[in-house]
Design brief:
single chain, Rossmann fold, six-stranded mixed sheet, 6 strands, 41% helix, binds guanosine-5'-diphosphate, binds magnesium ion, Small_GTPase_ARF/SAR, metal-binding, Arf-like_GTPase, P-loop_NTPase
Length: 222
């Protein structure tokens, strides 16, 4: 007897075994999914409990791109519209088993005097510079020099982020370090230079990943 689609469909729809099999399969599927989610939550909680914590401080003049950098470090997605940071903000991200507590403090003239309240316990200083804002390199240098002279940052590694590399006329990281008076081969402090762009629509994700990798080298999990 020739099988028509209609009879085949009816067979499937009215066959109790089909429904039973579907019921069992969907129950098993849901149970597996719930078990998987519970396992993931337990794993995440365990990681959070066990993760060593590191305190990272992100400073730099206003508009340099600190918040943008953090957004990209946090999500890897393109940054959404940002408000200038008034005061400070802190995010915590997992970097291969190490919890990075990253503090950003606003960089406008009136709030820079508060930077020193955030130095204690800092294990890495990231100083972000707008690479086309040549007029303010001198101010950036003054601020960074003050920071590096502080005993609380003695020996703390420094990352100079030469941001806005997507802009025409952006100075290279090495030129910026020179303008800031930073010597890449200081022997009492490790210095890293990262060249990034972190604008809303595009970011140098490879460089941002390099920054995260560098932190993994500084603080290996075990
Ligand atoms: N063209 C360009 N603009 C950027 C870049 N990074 C940040 N911006 C923009 O610069 C402005 C200030 O950035 P923001 O992250 O708030 O700077 P912050 O004050 O240092 O936190 C914002 O309008 C950002 O969209 C970049 O790499 N290139
Ligand atoms: Mg900001």
């Amino acid at each position: 007897m020739a099988l028509s689609w209609e009879t085949l469909a009816k067979d499937i729809v009215f066959n109790k075994k089909t429904w039973l099999a579907l019921g069992v399969a969907s129950f098993a599927g849901s149970a597996l999914y719930v078990a998987y989610r519970l396992h993931e939550i337990a794993k995440r909680q365990r990681m959070l409990r066990e993760a060593p914590e590191k305190r990272v401080l992100v400073l730099g003049l206003d508009g340099a791109g600190k918040s943008s950098l953090l957004q990209h470090m946090n999500s890897g997605d393109s940054a959404s519209a940002l408000q200038p940071t008034n005061g400070f903000s802190v995010i915590s991200i997992q970097n291969e088993g190490v919890a990075l507590n990253i503090w950003e403090v606003g960089g406008a003239e009136g709030v820079r005097s508060y930077w020193e309240n955030f130095l204690q316990g800092t294990e890495l200083l990231i100083f972000v510079v707008d690479s086309i804002d040549e007029d303010r390199f001198t101010v950036a240098k003054e601020e960074l020099t003050k920071l590096l002279a502080d005993q609380r940052l003695k020996g703390v590694p420094l990352v100079v982020v030469a941001n806005k590399q997507d802009q025409a006329g952006a100075k290279q990281g090495s030129e910026i370090c020179k303008a800031l008076g930073v010597e890449p081969d200081w022997n009492d402090r490790d210095v890293y230079i990262i060249e990034t762009h972190t604008s809303e629509n595009s970011a140098s994700l490879e460089e941002i990943e390099r920054l995260k990798n560098m932190m993994r080298t500084l603080w290996p999990k075990d």
